[in-house]
Design goal:
mainly alpha; 243 residues
Amino acid sequence: MNQGFYLFFLLALLAEIVGTISGFGSSILFVPLASLFIDFKLVLGITAVFHVFSNLSKIFLFQKGIHQNIALKLGIPAVLFVILGAYLTSVIPLKEIELSMNLIILGLTVFLISGAGKKIKQTNFNLYTGGIISGFLAGLIGTGGAIRGITLAAFGLEKDMFIATSALIDLGVDSSRAVVYIMQGYFTSEHIILIPFLIVIAVLGSYLGKKVLAFIPEKYFHYVVLGVIGTISILQTIQYFRA
């Protein structure tokens, strides 16, 4: 196991803690960070497998109830469209996917900081739309948690129910895209050795995130997270055009 994977594990733990606290999920921070050091398609494959364990941990730790109606109406479209997005990663050139990831994440960052997401209404149409967009982006660029978080926030769920419902939806999304990525060779038999480490990181990161969450006002922490994400996206976009 080379040094790149040790750095990968450290980033995964940090992203899992921050993702649990912020409510956006770890991938929005982890995918752009990890892709600075590891091949992007490998990042997609490992992240999907990692998130399966991450979501199981969150469902267990925040088990105060899951909003079944929202989970179905947001989750089913997300699972269907994540398969399409994941498939397109084998068709669209890698560099274009990475550039799209940075521009989309940067756009989401500006959107969230502006507070525009608070205007989303509690309608079935918005649930279906949020599921379609978040699922497609999760498959294509590795992260769709911000869109799912914006959509869920409109329904005013209690904190634990919010995280558990989001984790259940994400479990279906990540399980589906993991299968597609594995079929496309993004996660091979040589990476199976990583699974025990990913399980430990998922459980530990979710646990630490839950502990920290009790002491930090989420509304302030979100802006710090978004600032970091936006900065990473800008740096990677600059790097793309310099290459």
